[in-house]
Amino acid sequence: MTAPVVLFLCVHNAGRSQMALGWLNHLAGDRAVAMSGGSEPGREVNPAAIAAMAEVGIDITREYPKPWTDEIVRAADVVVTMGCGDACPFFAGKRYEDWVLDDPAGMGVEAVRPIRDEIGDRVRGLLDSLGVAH
Question: pTM for this structure?
Fold first, then answer.
């Protein structure tokens, strides 16, 4: 069986989708492939998201906001959208999940922690649904 590919999409690819990417890579290792992108990528990953993830031992400092492409979306087995609404791509036959989460933009690390933890719980549930050990 090949590793499932999960794509996390949000507007700026600077907070929620980057934390989800970090969680999936941390929990699944090479048993799943994670990618992320934004409809309007920001300039840098949210420093509060980086700090909150570091608190749980996950380093996302090497990540950077990037755009998604149709090819990346088509390559994904699951597309998880987080607040990008109509800007997120839709391809028939793809498995989509829309995660309604607060946007951590402009928040301090204290406010980002509950978002981080909710994303971690959702990534665990997603991995369970894909039959991927974590």
Answer: 0.95
pLDDT digits (tens, 9 = 90+) for 83-95: 877 777 788 889 9
Count of domains for the chain: 1
What's the length of the chain? 134
Residue 53 lies in a domain: yes
* Mean pLDDT on 9-31: 96
Contact 105, 94 (CB under 8 A): no
Whether 134 is covered by a domain: the verdict is no
In a domain, 22, yes or no: yes
**73-84 burial by CB neighbour count: b if 16+ within 10 A, else e?**
beebebbbbbbb
List, by residue number, the catalytic residues: 10, 84, 88
Model pLDDT, residue 87: 76
